[in-house]
Automatic annotation (TrEMBL):
<keyword id="KW-0443">Lipid metabolism</keyword>
<keyword id="KW-0444">Lipid biosynthesis</keyword>
<dbReference type="InterPro" id="IPR041431">
    <property type="entry name" value="Mvd1_C"/>
</dbReference>
<dbReference type="InterPro" id="IPR005935">
    <property type="entry name" value="Mev_decarb"/>
</dbReference>
<keyword id="KW-0547">Nucleotide-binding</keyword>
<dbReference type="GO" id="GO:0016126">
    <property type="term" value="P:sterol biosynthetic process"/>
</dbReference>
<dbReference type="GO" id="GO:0005524">
    <property type="term" value="F:ATP binding"/>
</dbReference>
<keyword id="KW-1207">Sterol metabolism</keyword>
<protein>
    <recommendedName>
        <fullName>Diphosphomevalonate decarboxylase</fullName>
        <ecNumber>4.1.1.33</ecNumber>
    </recommendedName>
</protein>
<keyword id="KW-0067">ATP-binding</keyword>
<dbReference type="InterPro" id="IPR053859">
    <property type="entry name" value="MVD-like_N"/>
</dbReference>
<feature type="domain" description="Diphosphomevalonate decarboxylase-like N-terminal">
    <location>
        <begin position="17"/>
        <end position="190"/>
    </location>
</feature>
<dbReference type="GO" id="GO:0004163">
    <property type="term" value="F:diphosphomevalonate decarboxylase activity"/>
</dbReference>
<dbReference type="InterPro" id="IPR020568">
    <property type="entry name" value="Ribosomal_Su5_D2-typ_SF"/>
</dbReference>
<dbReference type="Pfam" id="PF18376">
    <property type="entry name" value="MDD_C"/>
</dbReference>
<dbReference type="GO" id="GO:0005829">
    <property type="term" value="C:cytosol"/>
</dbReference>
<dbReference type="InterPro" id="IPR036554">
    <property type="entry name" value="GHMP_kinase_C_sf"/>
</dbReference>
Amino acid sequence: MANGLQNWVLMVTAQTPTNIAVIKYWGKRDETLILPVNDSISVTLDPEHLCTTTTVAVSPSFENDRMWLNGKEISLSGGRFQNCLREIRCRANSVDDEDKGIHIKKEDWDRLHVHIASYNNFPTAAGLASSAAGFACLVFSLAKLMNLKEDQGALSAIARQGSGSACRSLYGGFVKWVMGNDDNGSDSIAVQLANEAHWDDLVIIIAVVSSQQKETSSTTGMRESVETSALLHHRAQEVVPKRILQMEEAIRTHDFPSFARLTCADSNQFHAVCLDTCPPIFYMNDTSHRIISYVEKWNRSAGTPQVAYTFDAGPNAVLIARNREVASLMLQRLLFYFPPPPATELTSYVLGDKSILKDAGLEMRKDVEALSPPPETKDNIPSQKYAGDVSYFICTRPGRGPVLLADESQALLHPETGLPK
Ligand SMILES: Nc1ncnc2c1ncn2[C@@H]1O[C@H](COP(=O)(O)OP(=O)(O)OP(=O)(O)O)[C@@H](O)[C@H]1O
Ligand SMILES: C[C@@](O)(CCOP(=O)(O)OP(=O)(O)O)CC(=O)O
C-alpha cells in the first residue's frame, strides 16, 4: 500500500441529481433489501438546480468511517448506510494511481476507512427527495473510489438499499425502477427509458409549500399502508402494471396529454392509498389541494392538459408544463394566487431557472401585483390570494445523471487531511 507511506489521501467527488416519480413507488415487499411492490417511473431533475455533491476519500491514516452532511458530522451506524458500504466494499478492486504513487490492493479495502462529505444544494429532509440524491451520490462516488467494475444497473441496486427512490437517481432523463422477482433483489434495478434530451420541452416548477405539520416518513408511511390498505394491493397488482406500459408509451411518443393524465391520476391514487391507511396519513395540505384545483380548472378550460401535477410524501407540488410558454403562463397563475410575502424580492422567491420569470414578464414585485386573475376563473367572484402559503418556487427541467467532478477545488474534503474544508 503506497510504498509504506501513511499520509496519502485519495479522493473522488461526484454530483448526483434528485428525481420525481410520475408513477409512484409506495410499499415494500422486503424492508431490509428495499424491494418494492410495484415498478415506478421518474423524471430526473436538472442538477444545476437541485443536486447532491459528495466527496469520498480513503487514507491509511483514517481510523474510522466518518461522514459529514451539510458540514455537520452524522453517524454512519444506521443499517442503510452500513448496507451500502458493505455492498460496495465487497466489490472493491485494486487501485493504482501512478502519479500519486498510490497502490491499493483489493484485500486492503477491508482494513481501510473512508471519509465522506456531502452537501445538498437544497433543503435536506424537506420533502425534496434529498435521500434519493444523497444515497445515489454516496454509492456512485464510492464505486469510483473503490474501482468497482459493475455497471450502472448494479450500482442502482446498491443505492436502492440506501433509499428505494435513490436507485432512479443513477440515470438522467426518464427512469424506470423495475421491481424484479428475485428474493435477493439482484433484478430490482433502475433502467433508463430515455435521456434528458429526449423530451427537452418540458419545464418543471416546484412549489415548496410552507408546512408546520409533522410528517410521517415515507418509510413508516409505506409500511403502514402495506399492512392496512387494501387499495395499495389493488393498485400494485392491477393498476400500476397497466399505467407503467401507458406511461412508457407516452414518454416514447412525447404524448403530453397522456403523460399528464397518468401523472396526476397516479399522484392522486398514491394519496388515496395514504388516506386508505389505518390510521390515515395526510401528506397534502390546503395549499396542495388549491394547486390541484387551479391546474384542473386550467387544463379543463384549455381542452387538453397543459400542466401535470404530482406530490410526494409531503405538501410540495411538482408541476410539469408541456413547454416554456405554458410554464410562463403557469408561473403567472401561481404568483397571482401565491404572491411573495411583503419585503420578499421576486428573485429570492423564484429560484432555479429565473429566465422563465422574464418570459412571463415578471421582473419586479409590481409586475406580480399587476397580474389579472387567470381567464378560467373570470366568472368566479373575486379570486382569493394566499400570500405566505408557498415558501418559494424552484424552476427546473429534466436533467442528466451523475457525473464525476475532476476539478479538486470542488472537493468537500481537504486533499491533505481528508477532513471537511
Ligand atoms: N447528501 C446526502 N448523503 C447521504 N445521505 C443523505 C443525504 N441527504 C440526505 N440523506 C439522508 O436522507 C435522510 C433524509 O431523508 P428523508 O426521506 O427524511 O427526507 P427527504 O428525502 O429530503 O424527503 P422525502 O423523502 O420526503 O422526499 C437524511 O437524514 C440522511 O440520512
Ligand atoms: C412518495 C415517494 O417519494 C416515496 C419515496 O420513498 P423513499 O424512497 O424515500 O422511501 P424508502 O425506500 O423507505 O427510503 C414516491 C417515489 O419516489 O416513487
